Amino acid sequence: MNIETKLDRHLHAFRQDLADKRLEGRIEAERFVEGTPARVERFFADVKSAPRDDAGMDTQFLYGETVNVFENRDGWAWIQSARDNYVGYVASDAIGAPGAAPTHTVRAPRTFLYPGPDMKLARSGYRSIGSLLNVTGFEETRGMRFATLESGDAIFAGHIGPVGDDTEDYVDVAEQLLHTPYLWGGTSGFGLDCSGLIYLSFRLAGQTILRDTYMQAETVGTVIGGGADQPTLRRGDLVFWKGHVAIMRDADTALHANANTMMVSSEPIETAIGRIEPMYGLPTVYRRP
After folding, report:
1. Which CATH code fits 170-288?
2. Exposed / middle / buried, residue 259 (Cβ in 10 Å: 0-12, 13-18, 19+)
């Protein structure tokens, strides 16, 4: 049996030699194991297609995310996101034992950590929008309020919000990320690809969607058009091409992470369609979440 034709390798943990125990009976593998819970402990973890430094990056998991570990050897862990089921390889030192449940989420596109509650101290780290934190207290220095983290670091309290206190409009999140550099596989405030922008924006609005463009094009919202059948668009609609996606700011303007500007940029949708068509054709589908 060719297991590659049965399941998506990005969403199911399976190889010929090893597979998620939950797939037993559905596929063939030499060994089935239960995943061991862990937590991402880097600012973000690059998720690779193979356990090698030079392997392509498929996505990123942000600090504080829960994952399940199926194998950890030779400096690489084979893991699956507990949030959206994405599977891949990360450096072993990017993950650690699960900690206390997170209390807060980073809301600013990017922010810094300090060794104490003072912005004049040397930076001790950084966090992306969407990172999960465990806040143990708050302190004030010169009128600035800081949150103290379980690590002992401090973060500006104005850049975080309680878990579950989600943004109502996912387009608002996408607009905050204007001019963020384009990064293939990126899902952080430091670099994004087209579907990463959509994924992260929905996540900050309290909605978990699938990660990649082809997945989103089949699952997010309802179809309202495609190809030459271009509907009347409105804020929040998604426009999909083969391998690309944009989000509408209003009826006429699209926001997308793209390789034309190599950043998240805003442009008239008709301009984007005209520029992309010679290379990739017309949009394949329009969806309304």
Report:
1. 3.90.1720.10
2. exposed
Q: CATH class for domain 3-96?
A: mainly beta
Given a contact cutoff of 8 angstroms between Cβ atoms, the answer to whether 204 and 163 are in contact is no
C-alpha to C-alpha distances, 216 to 52, 90, 147, 251, 288, nearest whole angstrom: 28, 23, 35, 21, 11
Torsion of CA 188, 192, 197, 201, to 10 degrees: 10
pLDDT per residue as tens digits for the range 278-288: 999 999 999 99
HSE toward the beta carbon, residue 78, CA cutoff 13 A: 21
Indicate whether 5 pLDDT > 90: no
Q: Which of 236, 234, 204 is nearest to 220 (CA)?
A: 236
Phi, psi of 254 (to 5 degrees): -110, 150
Give the pLDDT of residue 73.
97
At residue 2 the predicted structure's pLDDT band, cuts being 50, 70 and 90, is: very low
CATH topology match: 104-162 vs 170-288 = no
Ranges of each domain in the chain? 3-96, 104-162, 170-288
Q: What is the pLDDT of residues 134-169, one digit of tens each?
A: 999 999 999 999 999 999 999 999 999 999 999 989
CATH top-level class for 104-162?
A: mainly beta
DSSP 168: S
User: From CA 79, how far away is CA 92, in angstroms rounded?
Assistant: 10
Pull the structure tokens for residue 189: 């405030």
- The pLDDT tens digits for 20-75 are 999 999 999 999 999 999 999 999 999 999 999 999 999 999 999 999 999 999 99
